[in-house]
Amino acid sequence: MSSIYHCLSVFVSFFFQQRRMETKHMCLLVLTVLCLIVSIADADTSPVLVKKVKGKKVCDQGWECKGWSEYCCNLTISQYFDYYQFENLFSKRNAPVAHAVGFWDFKSFITASAIYQPLGFGTTGNKTTQMLEIAAFLAHVGSQTSCGYGVVTGGPTAWGLCYNKEMSPMQDYCDDNYKYTYPCAPGALYFGRGALPVFWNYNYGYLGDCLKVDLLHHPEYLEQNATLAFQAAIFQWITPLKKGQPSPHDIMVGNWKPTKNDTDSKRIPGFGATMNILYGERTCGKGDVDDMNTIITHYLYYLDLMGVGREQAGPHEVLTCAEQKPFNPSTVTKDSASS
User: Fold this and answer.
1) How many CA atoms are closer than 13 Å to the CA of 186, on its beta-carbon side?
2) Each residue of 201-234: pLDDT tens digit?
3) What are phi and psi of 4, to 5 degrees?
4) pLDDT tens, 82-112?
5) Helix H or strand E encompassing 58
6) Beta carbons of 118 and 64 less than 8 angstroms apart
7) What is the Cα–Cα distance from 192 to 201, expressed in whole angstroms?
8) What angle do CA 328, 331, 334 make, to 5 degrees?
9) CA distance 100 to 323
10) Phi then psi for 167, rounded to 5 degrees?
11) Which of 244, 293, 240, 241 is nearest to 271 (CA)?
12) How far apart are CA 89 and CA 303, in angstroms?
């Protein structure tokens, strides 16, 4: 549908530029454009194929949600989140002062998401649940790649996807404790890269194994390929760090049921718990700190821009992780891929 809106905008602009054309010629132009719009609409719509497997309804919606999945029976991401919404969320990413001009785009996001939509990413539950998850995921992406901290016009919420890599790394992030599993490659630097920035050799190695891309020897791939960068971020989003723990995806779609230990640790379902999973004690359990509040602000802002409304995010206690104990304290487990 985003192609239709683009054609309409082009047509309106052309209409006013050519407003002195003869009426006969203008009518022909209108008919031509309308026919083009209809043909684009038809091309953008993939038929929903349905069958039953062991009594369960499964679907296939073409390239975006392919593979006979129950989740493909729901809306695909591009059916409720379009090019223009992506542009609104990341409106400053191609400004002259940004650091990844021309790198990030809507097509790369949708292409990467197509791998995971049959697994439920952005396709679980009703439309509101789906949009809440995508807003949450992109809020983390936007907050971690923003360059709008300070006096830049629009503030941090307008400057998501400004970066695709750490600009002034203080170290090479090579941990020799993993020299037998993920040894650092000669000349490779494992500083932060991607949509949910990846640090350390062991995280690049692990993600590379999972994505079947040699990121251990070529960590730079995450700053060279936007689709791969989004793919790595979505993988982190839907994959639990440890057995028995939820993924951020599980939390946002209601799949996680807290244990008594979670409750005692003040970990409850909601956006706040996704911060706990992704950042742990860097952000959570430290009270009302700026880092946490900035991520929450992105989430609420994105919900408004997407037309969901921040009231759907829930009360403050589910948005925050200020009092939550980390799922994975650094004294017990290694850092996550995004820390």
Assistant:
1) 0
2) 999 999 999 999 999 999 999 999 999 999 999 9
3) -65, -45
4) 999 999 999 999 999 999 999 999 999 999 9
5) strand 56-60
6) no
7) 11
8) 60
9) 35
10) -85, -35
11) 293
12) 10
**Which of 87, 85, 142 lies closest to 294 in space, CA to CA?**
142
The Cα–Cα gap between 2 and 89 comes to: 15
Gyration radius (Cα) of the chain, Å: 22
Q: How far apart are CA 119 and CA 67, in angstroms?
A: 10
Dig out the tokens for 223 from the structure.
């700053």
User: What 3-state class would DSSP assign to 291?
Assistant: helix
Assign 121 to helix, strand or coil.
Answer: coil
Q: Report residue 137 as tokens.
A: 């995921």
Query: Tokens representing 163?
Result: 């970066």
| β partners of residue 51 | 58
CA distance 160 to 109: 14
What CA–CA distance (Å, rounded) separates 84 from 308? 15
Start-to-end C-alpha separation, the chain = 37
Taking the C-alpha atoms of residue 311 and residue 40, their distance in angstroms, rounded to an integer, is 35
AA identity, residue 244: G
* Stated pTM of the model: 0.85
Task: Name the token pair of 261.
Answer: 């230990």
